[in-house]
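Look at a sample.

——
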Amino acid sequence: MNTAPNSERIRISIFGRRNAGKSSLLNAILGQDIATVSAVPGTTTDAVFKPMELLPLGPILLVDTPGLDDDQAEIGELRIKRTQEELRRADIAIVVTSAKVGLGEFEANLIADLRAKGIAFIVAINKLDEEPLTEERAAELERAFAAPIYPVSAKAGQGINELKEALAQLKPEEPQSQHIIGDRLSRGDIAILVVPIDKAAPKGRLILPQQQTIRDLLDCGCNALVCQVHELSHMLSSLSKVPAIVITDSQVFAEVRAIVPQDIKLTSFSILMAQYKGNYELQRRGAEMLDKLNDGDTLLIAEGCTHHRQCNDIGTVKLPNWIKKHTGKNLNFEFTSGQGWKDDLSKYALIIHCGACMLNRREMRNRLSDAEAAGVPITNYGIAIAKLQGVDLYC
């Protein structure tokens, strides 16, 4: 992979009414025609994504969304729901309106929602080529809405550079840590990464958490050694320096724990993602629910990506089997994948979530908050598997 994954890019999402010029603005920022532009309201029927570089922010993902005022019965409601879901993922927002329509109650409510969610934003008043906007009027609106306002014409390219410069200066919410593991080790430390190559492993490459962990270790001046389970004993015995940590695929926790001496720290890629993306302690406590399940309880197993499932898939086969064996209970399981998420979590006794390498930090934290608000314990694949297999961890 030569580019930053979308989950690691700063997500800049464009919101507004239909026909405000959101798609034309995306094209103008990119300098190329990516989104379809039309005078017909509701032309954008689903989100449009485009990665780019915007210095000094760095890698960003620019997202165009359907209008939040879509009134086309059921299909309009679905489009609005998709756009509202994007509000859960955005790090930075551009609120777009046309100079002719101006700023009204609709935009005021959207701005209030962004502020409540802690999302940095600016307001673009588009289509100056159709309706001029004086500097005095722009300043008046800026005071009235207490928001930074940038008059632009996406069609004519007017004000686009100023808008991009303003976006580049915005600061999204800072993560708890910029590092996955490297900042908890010392320069020169050795980390062994146990990477099983099986049917689920993508041909010719490593999965994203493994790639990201290796890069993070290298960035922090640490040494990353990679092996499979059957090579681990030989690697440990051949090293003149004791490794600082062993990081494994969660599915082989028990096998790896049996090989790794107790004085060497052990964790998994999934657990590192739980710490990097969200609230580890919340998910650690959630795993305790595995000892408290009752017959008839329903569990939600959630994955942030979509993939072709193998016959012995971790989420839909292995985890349910391990849980049923551990509890001895008659349990029900439901599954979500990709951007899918349940609006009502109250029916679940426990949620088990993947490492979320394909979700951005804001989306994962919102999912954790949803579970907390519903009073439902939530844990992580790696944390759950460690508990089910009786593995003591360094986290």
